[in-house]
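Page 42, continued from yesterday. The earlier attempt failed because a stray header line got pasted into the input along with the sequence. Redoing it now with the clean sequence only.
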Amino acid sequence: MQQVNRYCKSAKISEVKFRYLLRLFALDLTASDTARLTGLNTRSVNTIYLRLRRRMQAECRVPVELAGAVELDECYFGPRRVRGKRGRGAGGKTVVFGLFKRGGQVYTEIVPNCQKKTLQAIIRGKVDVSAMVNTDGWRGYDGLVDVGYDRHFRVHHGQDEFVQGAAHINGIESFWGFAKARLQQFRGLRQELFLLHLKECEFRFNHRQQDLYKSLLKLLRQQPL
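This time it went through. Structure tokens are written below.
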């Protein structure tokens, strides 16, 4: 009698093979490489990978009132800038806003633009006014002091300023570099899948000091796929 798979009850795959697949996923192997190593077909592996990403997305909870030292920044994902297009992030890119609590975790959110109104609505809902807020010189961050963020510090990258005492955004920029490097392996993502892959990057980054395989096993033991 085949052993019940405690981690993935929705797929006809043994627990031993699933754990092997999960280990390969944690190592960031592609679905095609995992299929070759496990003997499963690529479609089955892609289905499980999709479910894993959805579970990881569900675990990327919205922070409530971030305090301490917090770094804020925006990033643009997508094709290279189109010639002739002007403006910050021009050329049909997906705009992502990120919040990083130093010594803690990163949180990302897809936004329609980087205008002051858009960014401040997120900041005022997720960052405590007592926080040490660190940003670059983008005008979308203008006026934070006026709405209560008295400890707003800026570094002006356009003036080759990247660290000013304790003021910097190196942590969130480290995440952007990690996420872009990871997503390049897919050589373009369908728009409807981008958020799942972004949240996978977020989950991996937030568990970078842990054994990801063991973290996923524990998560799936509590709530199987």
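Notes: Residues 15-59+210-222 form one domain.
Reminder to self: strip header lines before submitting.
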